[in-house]
Amino acid sequence: MDCIRIKKLEVFAKHGVMPEENALGQKFVISIELFCDVRKAGQTDNLTYSVNYAEVAEFVTKKTQENTFQLIERLAEYLAQEILLHYEAVEKVSIEVEKPWAPVHLPLQTVAVSVTRQWHTAYLSIGSNMGDTKGHLDQAVEALRQDSWTRVEKVSSYIVTAPVGGVEQDDFLNGAVMLRTLRTPEELLELIGEIERSQKRERIIHWGPRTVDLDILLYDQEIIHTESLTVPHIEMANRMFVLEPMCEIAPYAKNPLNGCCMLEMKQQIQGREDS
């Protein structure tokens, strides 16, 4: 990916743990790497197709000066998020914040913190089989849209499917959602948990009825297995109610575990059913 670099931007601001740092202020030196596609700008010599580095420098200066944080870790995190949210063309950003006047009373040149943050692509399965099922799904999608760190890119049609797992219950309404998010997988899991709780989701019976159910199917091409989260979703390749909506919005999105895309996995299930 192409990169625009802003090196050693000097900003006088008020950040630090010590009270005098917040009152008197000091110099901070900020370096920025903006990862974006500048090919068209290079071909046309038109700034419209790039990111204006002068504007970014002014933006970072303003954001640095209008806030007061104790830690430069917090400042770096904040600046990275603000840039990604404000500049749509920027896919990834690296920020280094240096504090050359850090009050450590030792002969050092500077202290610094570097962070790299980026947009991630995630896919969710959504389902409901209690009450106003369409209303529950629409409400969940709207809650995702309201999250400042998340962009809803695509929403599939909703399909009616029979329940699985052997529990007697009503049919489900199912769909899939494509997201762009600044959240980590764990933070995304926390968000969808909050959405489920806000819609009175209760986990009483395994595979039982629910007002709304949101599951992370894919997160970039990462393979994650922790106590609380497994990605790709363990049952994705075996569930037509997952694959059919996914084939509508992302037929060629791949399962990193087997290298198969959604369309291939759907065809595999259909082949088993026909044989």
UniProtKB/TrEMBL annotation:
Instruction: Report the pathway entry.
Output: Cofactor biosynthesis; tetrahydrofolate biosynthesis; 2-amino-4-hydroxy-6-hydroxymethyl-7,8-dihydropteridine diphosphate from 7,8-dihydroneopterin triphosphate: step 4/4; Cofactor biosynthesis; tetrahydrofolate biosynthesis; 2-amino-4-hydroxy-6-hydroxymethyl-7,8-dihydropteridine diphosphate from 7,8-dihydroneopterin triphosphate: step 3/4
Q: Which Gene3D superfamilies match?
A: 3.30.1130.10, 7,8-Dihydro-6-hydroxymethylpterin-pyrophosphokinase HPPK
Q: Which reaction does it catalyse?
A: 6-hydroxymethyl-7,8-dihydropterin + ATP = (7,8-dihydropterin-6-yl)methyl diphosphate + AMP + H(+); 7,8-dihydroneopterin = 6-hydroxymethyl-7,8-dihydropterin + glycolaldehyde
Q: Does the keyword Acyltransferase apply?
A: no
Domain 7,8-dihydro-6-hydroxymethylpterin-pyrophosphokinase, which positions? 206-217
Record's CDD domains?
DHNA_DHNTPE, HPPK
Assigned keywords, A-Z: ATP-binding, Folate biosynthesis, Kinase, Lyase, Nucleotide-binding, Transferase
Asked if the keyword Lyase belongs to this entry, the reply reads yes
**InterPro entries, per the entry:** Dihydroneopterin_aldolase, FolB_dom, GTP-CH-I_C/QueF, Hppk, Hppk_sf
Q: Name one GO molecular function term.
A: 2-amino-4-hydroxy-6-hydroxymethyldihydropteridine diphosphokinase activity
Superkingdom classification of source = Bacteria
What does this protein do, in the record's words?
Catalyzes the conversion of 7,8-dihydroneopterin to 6-hydroxymethyl-7,8-dihydropterin.
- Name of the featured protein: Bifunctional folate synthesis protein
* Annotated organism of origin: Jutongia huaianensis
Tell me the lineage of the source organism.
Answer: Bacteria, Bacillati, Bacillota, Clostridia, Lachnospirales
